[in-house]
């Protein structure tokens, strides 16, 4: 059969198919167009919009509007817990407000819309920025003559906020579970830096491999016992320190324990599942409480550093001899 004959045969077949086939073809075309609209924005023709949205799924009504706006950054763009990979489904009582998997830029841009990690990022991101920007005002440098220790203290106070902020901001990275675990280890490392030296390695290893919130909280046991022993020594003949710092040391650990238990118990969201997804759930409360705990750590450390600077016995120097009396 010639080429023209084949062409006529094909066109005749379509013509003979009747209205039913035409309707089916139209339906198939509509379905294909709908699927195209459900593709990620990364495949969109609007490259500017693609860079902003970073792979978040666009609904059909948003796609058809032709607008690249903050509509996508509204609650409609957020996911439910069951839509996430299993490694991000760690709190069964937080049901909505989850970000989709995003690349690094998309995770960063999530700073500018509200989701269920926003409060976690703010509560530790603000202290981090405050310390990094105003570190010179945080210590009475003119009254402290002890070398190195003031800088160690500043590193210890900022480290938990750096690790936590990075973890919460990038935890939904599209690189998957391996990336998430690395971020979790960074978060634990930030806390690790603030702990008592004897329990550091044990704590970091156990906390990084904990299988549930309770196991992770109990990883703090040894560092906590070391700090309790140090607090006890302060009142003995072998101890020392500014007496005014003791209350800050006690409050620091009490608040840290309180925050840890609130986070592990997952209250109050356990009592009202799905109602505290974006605000005032246990992790948010824990974040605020531990910031206050580190505030007391800082207050106590400042008092002790000033005390240590004026204590000649601890510094290994001898007091000046008394003036010669004739």
Automatic annotation (TrEMBL):
Keyword Cell cycle: no
InterPro entries: AdipoR/HlyIII-related
GO molecular function list: metal ion binding; signaling receptor activity
Gene Ontology terms: cellular component: membrane
Keywords assigned by UniProt, alphabetized: Membrane, Metal-binding, Receptor, Transmembrane, Transmembrane helix, Zinc
Principal location class: membrane
Gene field: PAQR4_0
Keyword Membrane part of the UniProt annotation: yes
Name of this chain's protein: Progestin and adipoQ receptor family member 4
Transmembrane segments: 118-136, 148-170, 182-205
Organism this protein belongs to: Chionoecetes opilio (Atlantic snow crab)
Disordered: region residues: 1-20
Membrane topology, as annotated: Multi-pass membrane protein
Binding-site residues for Zn(2+), renumbered to this chain: 168, 283, 287
Family per similarity comment: Belongs to the ADIPOR family.
Compartment list: Membrane
Domain of life where this protein originates: Eukaryota
């Amino acid at each position: 059969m010639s080429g023209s004959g084949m062409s006529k045969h094909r066109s005749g077949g379509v013509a003979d198919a009747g209205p039913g086939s035409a309707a089916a073809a139209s339906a198939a075309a509509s379905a294909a167009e709908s699927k195209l609209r459900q593709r990620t924005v990364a495949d969109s023709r609007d490259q500017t919009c693609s860079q902003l949205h970073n792979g978040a799924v666009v609904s059909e009504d948003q796609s058809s509007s032709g607008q690249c706006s903050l509509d996508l950054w509204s609650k409609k763009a957020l996911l439910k817990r069951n839509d996430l990979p299993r490694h991000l489904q760690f709190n069964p009582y937080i049901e909505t407000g989850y970000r989709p998997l995003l690349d690094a830029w998309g995770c960063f841009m999530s700073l500018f819309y509200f989701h269920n990690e926003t409060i976690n990022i703010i509560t530790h991101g603000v202290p981090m920025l405050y310390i990094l920007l105003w570190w010179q005002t945080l210590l009475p440098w003119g009254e402290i003559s002890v070398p190195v220790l003031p800088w160690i203290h500043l590193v210890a106070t900022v480290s938990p906020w750096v690790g936590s902020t990075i973890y919460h901001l990038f935890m939904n990275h599209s690189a998957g579970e391996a990336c998430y675990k690395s971020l979790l280890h960074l978060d634990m490392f930030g806390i690790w830096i603030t702990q008592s030296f004897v329990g550091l390695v044990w704590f970091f290893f156990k906390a990084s491999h904990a299988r549930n919130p309770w196991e992770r909280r109990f990883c703090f046991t040894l560092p906590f016992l070391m700090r309790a022993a140090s607090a006890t020594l302060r009142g003995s003949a072998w101890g020392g320190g500014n007496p005014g710092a003791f209350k800050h040391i006690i409050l620091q650990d009490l608040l840290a324990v309180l925050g840890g238990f609130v986070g592990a118990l997952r209250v109050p969201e356990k009592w009202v599942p799905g109602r505290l997804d974006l605000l005032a759930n246990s992790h948010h409360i824990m974040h605020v409480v531990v910031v206050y705990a580190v505030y007391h750590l800082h207050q106590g450390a400042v008092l002790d550093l000033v005390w240590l600077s004026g204590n000649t016995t601890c510094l290994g120097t001898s007091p000046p001899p008394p003036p010669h009396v004739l």
